[in-house]
Design a protein that fits this description.
Metallo-beta-lactamase, Chain A, alpha/beta, seven-stranded mixed sheet, single chain, 14 strands, 2 domains, 7 helices, 19% helix
């Protein structure tokens, strides 16, 4: 099983990165639907597709409008978008309003399914749990546990090793965590509800994870190292910066 990084930046695309989207092709599972989702067209290989949204900010949902292209020539048995109730309402009312995008996802037989308490079964024998994150307008993080391995995805939040969400991600094999700013912009990270390098690395230590993959990085930073990887590795050595189309094997 592999996870493909379809989009690894935040806010807007850059010359080398698209916005947040992460896909497990063999499972028909996608986390967030940023502009990187157009790359899923060549990767869809299941009769179903489950898209889990962290929140409804445009850099995480704009790619939903790309699904008419992504799924051209493919007749899925099921297309489900999972999100908070308020995000579903915002997407339907605003993103798919006629003056902006005149075709509803119902044309693709898409079902929007609001999150409820408890776990959600996902392909591969896994279970997904979601938990709240601190961010303007709110956001949720995800933990997925499969037999023998586990993953946590935490985006659009203020990293803090004392935050409540750290308990939810304890001991995962891979932590995919946003790191929009380097440490020189820590004050701006606090104002905007995002993370900078040192606190993210400290979260990985506090949670006892095995591997840290940094995503949702600043599109204006140097493409090869926008957040100061050496700073992260000094605290948590097994840290990497994700790049678009990077594949992670499980």
């Amino acid at each position: 099983m592999k996870m493909v990084m379809l989009g690894t930046t935040g806010y807007h695309p850059s010359a080398t990165r698209h916005t947040a989207c992460f896909m497990f092709p063999e499972l028909g599972l996608i986390l967030d639907a940023g502009t990187g989702i157009f790359r899923a067209r060549e990767l869809v290989c299941t009769p179903h597709l489950d898209i889990f949204l962290s929140h409804s900010h445009l850099d995480h949902v704009f790619g939903l409008t790309f699904l008419f292209d992504v799924l051209t020539g493919r007749k899925l048995e099921r297309l489900t978008v999972h999100a908070r109730s308020q995000d579903i309402e915002a997407i339907d009312t605003h993103l798919f309003c006629e003056p902006l995008f005149p075709v509803k996802l119902s044309k693709l037989n898409c079902e929007f399914r609001p999150y409820t308490d408890g776990t959600i079964s996902v392909a591969g024998g896994g279970t997904l749990t979601h938990f709240p994150l601190k961010h303007p307008g709110g956001s949720v993080g995800f933990r997925i546990d499969w037999p023998g391995h586990s993953l946590a995805y935490v985006t659009d939040t203020i990293a803090d090793p004392a935050a409540d969400y750290v308990e939810q991600i304890q001991g995962v094999d891979l932590l995919v965590h946003e790191c929009y700013f380097d440490d020189s912009l820590a004050q701006w990270a606090e104002v905007t509800g995002h993370s900078c390098t040192t606190p993210v690395a400290k979260v990985a230590v506090a949670a006892g994870v095995k591997r840290l993959l940094l995503v949702h990085v600043n599109p204006l930073g140097p493409p090869e190292d926008p957040i100061g990887l050496d700073v992260a590795r000094a605290i948590f050595p097994n840290s990497e910066i994700a790049t678009d189309m990077m594949e992670v094997e499980f």
